[in-house]
Amino acid sequence: MVEAALAAGLAAFVLSYTFSLSLERRVGRLRAFADGEAGQRQIEREKAAEDELGVLARALDGMAARLGGLAERAKVGGAQRESILATMVEGVLAVDAKLRVTFSNRSFAEAVGAQHPIRDGTPLPEVVRGPSLSELLTEVLREGEPQERRIGLVLAGEERVFVVQAAPLGTPAGPGAIAVLYDITPLERLERVRRDFVANVSHELRTPLTAIRGYAETLLEGGLEDAENSRRFVEIIKTHAIRLGNITSDLLTLSELESGAASSPSERVSVQAVVDSSMRTVTTAARLAGVRLVRGEIEEAEVLGSRTHMEQVLVNLLDNAVKFNRSDGEVHIETRREPDGNVTIAVSDTGVGIPSEVQSRIFERFYRVDKARSREAGGTGLGLSIVKHIVERMNGSVIVESDLGRGSKFTVTLPRCS
Length: 418
Ligand code: ADP
Known about the structure:
The chain is of the alpha+beta class. The chain has helices at residues 2-34, 40-48, 52-87, 106-111, 124-127, 132-143, 185-220, 227-259, 271-289, 307-323, 371-376, 383-393; strands at residues 91-96, 101-104, 147-155, 158-171, 174-183, 267-270, 292-298, 302-305, 330-337, 342-349, 397-403, 407-415.
C-alpha cells in the first residue's frame, strides 16, 4: 500500500518536473523571441500549440509584425526627411540648449562659409562669426516662441543678408531650437538698384523741371517785356523740355527692353543700310560741332534683330563720338565680316577719351564721366546702357578701348546671318 502511494507520488513528481521543465523552455523561447534573440522558426512551433502559451505566441508574433512595419515606416520617413533637409536651398540648423549644433544641412554650411558636414556638438559661435544668429536662438530658447529676423553675415569680405525663422524644438535629448535661413542678398541687391534708379530718375527730372519753372516765372514776373531776354529764356525752356523728352523716351526704351515688350519681330537687317541711315541722322550735329564723319570700309553683312534697335545702337555711338570730340576732330566708322561668323562695327573718335578706371562703368544707367559736359550736350546718361541692352539681346557684345585725351573706340560684335 505504502509502496503504491510512493510510486504514485514519484510518478507525479517526475511528471510535474518534466512538465515544468518543458514549460520553462517554452517560456524562455517566447522571451527570447520578444527580446529579438530568437528567430521566426523558433516561434512557429509555439504558435502551433493549442494551449495558452500558443495563444500568447500568436499574439506576440502579430505584435512583432506590426512593430516591424512601424519601424520600417519610421526609417523611410526619417530618410525622406533627411534627404529633403539635405537638398533644401534654405539653410537648416538645429542646436541644443547650449547652442551646440545637433543638425545642419549643406546649404547652411555654405551660407555661413563652413566646411560641410559640420560636426554635431560644435558650438555655434565656432561656426558662425558674429553674435546675431546666436542671440536669436538664445532668445527663442528662453522665450519658447518662434521668431523671425533679418540678419547680416560677412562671408569672404562680402555682406550677405538672410531672413532667419527660428523656433523652439523639443527633442528626446532635451530642449533645443531650429533655424531656417533664406539668403535674400540678391533680392536686397535688386531692391537697392531699384531704389538708386528711382532716386537717379527723380534727380535727373528735377533739374530741367526746376529750370523750366524758374524761367517761366521770370518771364511772367516782367521778363516778357524784355524782348531780348525773353527770347533767350524761352529758348532755355525749350532746351530743358527737349532734355525731359530725351530722358523719358530713353527710360521708356530701357523699360521696354527690360520687360521684353520690345521684342519686335526679328528681321534680317543690313548692316550697311543701318550705317548709312545712322550717319545721316548725326550729320547735322557733327557739322555743328565741327567734327568730320568718315565712312571707312563697310563690309556688308546681315544680322538678325530689329532695324530700329540697330539704328538706336549706331546713332547713340556716333552721337557720343561727336559729342565727346574736339572741334576739328574726326569720327570714323567701319564694319568687318569676321571669319568666326560675326560682324564687327567699330566707331572711333579723336575725342576726350575715357579714364581706364571708369571704362567698365560707362554702360551703367546714368553714369557719366563729366556730368556737366554730358548735360550740356543734351545727354541723358542712358545711351550706352541702351546700346548694351540691345546688343546683348542680339547675342552680341560691346567693348570700349580708350586713351585719355586721344580718343575712344567702341566695337560692337554681332552674329551675322549672311
Ligand atoms: P550720355 O552720352 O547721354 O551722357 P551715355 O550712356 O551714352 O550717356 O554715355 C555715358 C558716359 O560715357 C558719357 O557721359 C561720357 O562720359 C562717356 N562716353 C560715352 N561715349 C564716349 C566717347 N565716345 N568719348 C568719351 N566719353 C564717352
